[in-house]
């Protein structure tokens, strides 16, 4: 009887194998063909499901983890959610150290997923014993049978994408991909995917998307860590104020920087043009493509794959809130009324 029922064993069976979707409508004025790898189709709604599953299963293979042990990470974002989800199914405790800057919604979402959340002060330096880094490190040292995911400095982050995202894109494009465009945060997605694709065809051009206010582009160009590049910006999940070892700068051909404002409008445009409700960094990736097209990067023979890392639902109080957009001044330079809201 059981054999006749077509059911997944659990939610983890649905991680990866995300669809590649043509975004021809939005790209209709650009030369070439454009496809989005839509990572919101992962069950935890982001690409981070891949690394959570891969890193935890690697620890199991090495015999470091047994049921009832503990997984620790320092994020209130997508990775935290994915780690909590994988921990539930595999029977681990999940501890997430986050800063007091994290929204109540995010903290409650992680609690809802069974994670124990430590809220640490945001306004202390990383080496302060109260910082979320220090708290996570201490908990890891004190907890026998625990692993610390440490996504910015874990090579398994790259490997997860080398083994999954890269081969999927190669197969989905039948080896015809010419360009990969991906936002870089930890750098795991772009580095692992690029490494696999370049092994198949060294001519695949890999372009990273960075934020104004982040050091990655300058570091790639000069190998210098320039603190003048660092200032606050609004896009969450990409760009960085340090150099992550989960980024392999050698497999990235170049970086493009995008603004908060243009990226926010681009995400809203993706939702309205393609019906794909995606997150802020998906908008950043599309904005980078527009800039690259203007620079003459693409031809009619280009097959461009753009990674859309997560789902729009996590940004309801930000880019999908007209109020927030207005507060940021993001509607000031828009001529047409952007909002479609009709109130009676
Ligand atoms: N977009 C979003 C929304 C993310 O959360 C992340 C991860 N920080 C990225 C893009 C970048 O992915 P990666 O960390 O693999 O570079």
From TrEMBL:
Pfam families: PALP. This is Cystathionine beta-synthase. Residues 12-310 form the Tryptophan synthase beta chain-like PALP domain. It comes from the Bacteria. InterPro entries: Cys_Synth/Cystath_Beta-Synth (IPR050214), TrpB-like_PALP (IPR001926), TrpB-like_PALP_sf (IPR036052). Gene3D superfamilies: 3.40.50.1100. Belongs to the cysteine synthase/cystathionine beta-synthase family. Keywords: Pyridoxal phosphate. Its cofactor is pyridoxal 5'-phosphate. One of its GO terms (biological process) is cysteine metabolic process. It comes from Flavobacterium croceum DSM 17960. PANTHER family: CYSTATHIONINE BETA-SYNTHASE (PTHR10314).
């Amino acid at each position: 009887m059981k054999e006749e029922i077509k059911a997944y064993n659990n939610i983890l069976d649905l991680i990866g194998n995300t669809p590649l979707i043509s975004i021809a409508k939005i790209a209709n004025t650009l030369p070439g063909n454009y496809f989005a790898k839509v990572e919101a189709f992962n069950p935890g709604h982001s690409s981070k499901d891949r690394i959570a599953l891969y890193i935890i299963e690697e620890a199991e293979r090495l015999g470091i983890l047994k049921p009832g042990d503990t997984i620790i990470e320092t994020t209130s974002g997508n990775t935290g959610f994915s780690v909590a989800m994988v921990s539930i199914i595999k029977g681990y405790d999940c501890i997430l150290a986050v800063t007091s800057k994290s929204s109540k919604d995010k903290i409650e979402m992680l609690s809802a997923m069974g994670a124990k959340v430590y809220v640490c002060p945001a306004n202390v330096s990383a080496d302060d014993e109260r910082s979320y880094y220090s708290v996570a490190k201490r908990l890891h040292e004190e907890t026998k049978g625990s692993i610390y995911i440490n996504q910015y400095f874990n090579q398994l982050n790259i490997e997860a994408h080398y083994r999954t995202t890269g081969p999927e894109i190669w197969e989905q494009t039948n080896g015809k991909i010419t360009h990969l465009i991906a936002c870089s945060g930890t750098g795991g997605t772009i580095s692992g995917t690029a490494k696999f694709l370049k092994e198949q065809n060294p001519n695949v051009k890999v372009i990273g998307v960075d934020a104004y206010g982040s050091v990655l582009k300058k570091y790639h160009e000069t190998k210098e860590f320039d603190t003048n590049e660092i200032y606050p910006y609004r896009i969450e999940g990409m760009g960085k104020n340090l150099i992550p070892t989960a980024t392999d700068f050698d497999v990235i051909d170049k970086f493009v920087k995008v603004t908060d404002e243009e990226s926010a409008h681009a995400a809203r445009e993706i939702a309205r043009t393609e019906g794909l409700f995606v997150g802020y960094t998906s908008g950043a990736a599309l904005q980078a493509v527009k800039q690259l097209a203007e620079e003459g990067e693409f031809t009619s023979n280009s097959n461009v794959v753009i990674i859309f890392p997560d789902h729009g639902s996590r940004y309801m109080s930000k880019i999908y809130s007209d109020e927030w957009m207005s507060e940021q001044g993001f509607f000031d330079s828009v001529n047409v009324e952007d909002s479609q809201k009709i109130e009676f």
